[in-house]
Amino acid sequence: MEEVWHTRVVTDVAPPRRRGRPRDADLEDRVFDAVLEVYSETSWRGFTLDAVGRRARVGRAALYRRWASKDDLLVQALEARSPLPVPIDTGDLRSDLVELARQLLQGYRTTPGLVSLRVALDARVNPELLARLTHTLNKSRLLAARTIVHRAVERGDLPPDTSATLLLELVTGAVLSHALFALTTPEPAEDDAYAELVVETTVRGLRPAP
Amino acid sequence: MEEVWHTRVVTDVAPPRRRGRPRDADLEDRVFDAVLEVYSETSWRGFTLDAVGRRARVGRAALYRRWASKDDLLVQALEARSPLPVPIDTGDLRSDLVELARQLLQGYRTTPGLVSLRVALDARVNPELLARLTHTLNKSRLLAARTIVHRAVERGDLPPDTSATLLLELVTGAVLSHALFALTTPEPAEDDAYAELVVETTVRGLRPAP
């Protein structure tokens, strides 16, 4: 395994479709893939620049030249691989929330989604290291939920005092439990039906009894 | 660190209150504590009998004599440290669910609760190893929810076709998100208020519109 620690970047092992791309973008791709793989198999403690370098076949010096710390590397890999959700604005509360639930559920079925969950768990053990990172990862989700609730309140579809946090925790939480504890991976159509059921129940719950 | 690998059990480092307990119970206590600590800091991959032995100051031979595999050790430690929830039967649907939500929320704030979540995450990466274990860990929770729903349906408090799984995923999911993504640990009274809010919303959502 010594060889992979050469500082020379082994560009000739890259898949053919990447030919002609800038050398750095190719390095970055391999490194970000390796970050997610290593983190999804281990945790904050097992996630080291050395382990990433071995997996990505990138030299230690090249890694350290580019990323100052494992925090930086993790944040950048997650940002690159979990693009921000497309802003949701269908004009209808239920459709907005179903789309949010579907995006979250699909997200939790991917490696970046599992890594985000691992980071949140690791933050419970190492709050001083990871609390800021977890906060950053959650902010866009909370912002999406707030925007949806705000518009629904303006349209009169939800009471003015609706808690966006409660709504988000019910919807996120249900799809998270569903993705985490189910033994099988369902068909996409089943995920869609589940997203609708969760949203229907939550919206009915958030409206005051007539 | 070599010394701790002696097969002799170092009983004289045990806290005084354990004096007089059988040697084996004392060994088990230290090992189970170490299992939860090591697993909560690492993951399935980092959780090795060697790491547990070092943390518990128990010799490798003593560990292997008693536990055949790391599966066995993990299951036994989780069963010993996360006692089954006390059966909940207050006579009222909302009170039953609030008690369930409180138990789950408090559970997720403890090391055994975090370890159970880690096991569920690790099962997504290593299904062949951990799916059975995750299933076992969830069974008692699902059984508790089913019993509560069944009684509520008999009393006429919920429609007969209420899904216990959906109810459990909404309640568990919300408290799980709440415990996992919040930056601060709230006072117990705040947790109780949150449990009530989640249950109120979920029960209203599960009842058909009049």
From TrEMBL, chains A, B:
Record carries keyword Iron-sulfur: no
Keyword Transcription regulation (UniProt): yes
Domain HTH tetR-type per the UniProt entry, residue ranges: 25-85
GO molecular function terms listed in the Swiss-Prot or TrEMBL record: DNA-binding transcription factor activity; transcription cis-regulatory region binding
Highest taxon of source: Bacteria
DNA-binding region per Swiss-Prot/TrEMBL record: 48-67
Name of one Pfam family that matches: TetR_C_11
Keywords linked to the UniProt accession: DNA-binding, Transcription, Transcription regulation
PROSITE patterns: HTH_TETR_2 (PS50977)
Protein name: TetR family transcriptional regulator
Species assigned in the record: Rhodococcus coprophilus
